[in-house]
Design brief:
This protein is of the alpha/beta class. Helix content is 31%, strand content 22%. It is built from ten helices and 13 strands. An eight-stranded parallel beta sheet has the order 4-5-6-7-8-9-10-11. A three-stranded antiparallel beta sheet has the order 1-2-3. Strand 10, helix 10 and strand 11 form a beta-alpha-beta unit. Helix 1 packs across helix 3.
């Protein structure tokens, strides 16, 4: 089997900012696996938060043996972007060989569209209110926060989109004291969920703290091995394939988290429709789906995902799976 890795760049529709910085393009790695007859592909987004670069992730992938299987892959690479792209490419290749869809191979029900969040980039309160007003027709807005001026931003977004459901992502930007001060205002402004309010290494402070709004673990949850450390701190886990290391572990994490009583959020890095496609299977019935990466792009894959009033649709076979 031949393994090919390419670097692809997708321009963003506008500057995208979170508390850690800004970007104007999405840089991804695309993996193609070919057996000479069929080809499967997958995408990953290396993430500096986890010390990943395009170079380091590409090195991990090209170092794999040619006759790789999904089972062997779990032992050869850790959870992360490299394993994600290869795992998803293997699923796609298996589906093409079998003449079936991935959801059939995985024993899952046929997937349906899921309403997805649309993310508002971190900006001045005035600019965020304008963003919110422009997107007030969307049923679910996600706000990037994590700064000392968050209350003004939150008030501005609520004013711009008074009827929208709102979730907040602090990107580890708050302290326990800041979160405790903000919590009553989150309730007052109708926030439905707050994502990773404290740094992953400092989230023990959440134990015993009142959580009037459900709290979701993002940076604190990577794969099934993360679950024991989340007890008493979180109500929801955010499953991202670039963290779990692919669809295989994402589905297992989903099953394990549900069994332990957590609700599910399915999120993404900023990538193309190819990166979102496998995640639509994990998102079925999730409390929150946040697969808006393609909506933030000025350009996408040749056969992109469909987004409409019903939400994000599962991929066509010509895209993936």
């Amino acid at each position: 089997m031949k393994i090919e890795v390419t670097r692809d760049v997708f321009r963003l529709a506008q500057v995208f900012t979170i508390s850690r910085g800004s970007r104007t393009e999405a840089k991804v790695l695309t993996v193609r696996l070919s057996d000479g007859v069929h080809q499967g592909w997958g995408e990953c987004v290396p993430y500096a938060r986890y010390d990943e670069t395009l170079e380091s992730v590409e090195t991990e992938i090209v170092g794999l043996p040619c006759e790789i299987t999904r089972t062997a892959l779990m032992d050869l690479l850790p959870a992360g972007a490299a394993r994600n792209a290869v795992d998803c490419a293997l699923w796609d290749l298996e589906a093409k060989r079998a003449g079936k869809r991935v959801w059939e191979l995985a024993g899952l029900p046929e997937p349906r569209p899921e309403i997805t969040a649309y993310t508002l980039s971190l900006d001045t309160p005035e600019a965020m209110q304008a963003q919110a007003a422009k997107n007030a027709h969307r049923p679910l807005l996600k706000i990037k926060l994590g700064t000392p001026d968050d209350m003004q931003r939150l008030e501005a977004v609520r004013a711009g989109a008074p009827g929208a459901k709102i979730i907040v992502d602090a990107n580890e930007g708050w302290s326990a004291e800041v979160y405790a001060d903000l919590a009553p205002h989150l309730v007052r402004l109708g926030v439905a969920l707050v994502e990773q309010p404290l740094p992953a290494g400092q989230d023990d402070a959440l134990i015993g703290m009142e959580r009037p709004v459900p709290v979701c673990a993002d940076e604190s949850c990577h794969d099934r091995s993360s679950l024991p450390k989340l007890k008493g701190k979180y109500d929801v886990v955010n499953i991202k394939l670039d963290k779990t290391g692919g669809l295989t572990e994402a589905l297992e994490l989903r099953r394990a988290a549900l069994a332990e009583g957590y609700d599910i959020m399915v999120g993404c890095m900023v990538g193309s429709s190819l990166a979102m496609a496998p995640a639509t299977l994990v998102a079925q019935g999730a409390l929150v789906t946040d697969l808006d990466g393609p909506l933030l792009l000025a350009e996408d894959r040749e056969t992109p995902l469909v987004f409409d009033a019903a939400g994000v649709h599962p991929p066509s076979a010509s895209l993936w799976g």
